[in-house]
Amino acid sequence: MRTTVELPDELFRKAKAEAALRGVSLKILMADALREKLFVPKPSGPTGKVHRVKLPIIKSKRPGSLQITNAQIEEILNEPS
User: Fold this and answer.
1) What pTM did the predictor assign?
2) What are the φ/ψ torsions at residue 74 (nearest 5 degrees)?
3) How much of the chain, in percent, has pLDDT values that exceed 90?
4) Into how many domains does the chain fold?
């Protein structure tokens, strides 16, 4: 389908240059950009917002008694399983 779209000069120049860098036509670049923008998955949930998972908080009987550093956490996560 053919259509006419008015774009600001700077946006047109940038799009034309990007299409050239990618080795595609401006038509293909614009169609891909529209697909990317229009066909993204919609957030789920009753409010339309992305649902966040809350992790459990474990209360300590002796707060502050266990101290672990970010380096120790990273070391544990990088251990082969």
Assistant:
1) 0.49
2) -60, -40
3) 40
4) 1
> DSSP letters of 62-74?
STTS----HHHHH
55 occurs within a structural domain: no
What distance in Å separates the CA atoms of residue 18 and residue 22, rounded to the nearest whole number?
6
Task: Provide CB contacts within 8 A for 49, sequence distance 6+.
Answer: 43
Amino acid found at 47: T
- Which amino acid, 28? I
- CB neighbours of 66 closer than 8 A, spacing ≥ 6? 60
Long-range contacts of 3-8 (CB under 8 A, 24+ apart): none
Q: What CA–CA distance (Å, rounded) separates 66 from 37?
A: 47
Residue 77 counted as domain residue: no
Residue 28 belongs to a domain: yes
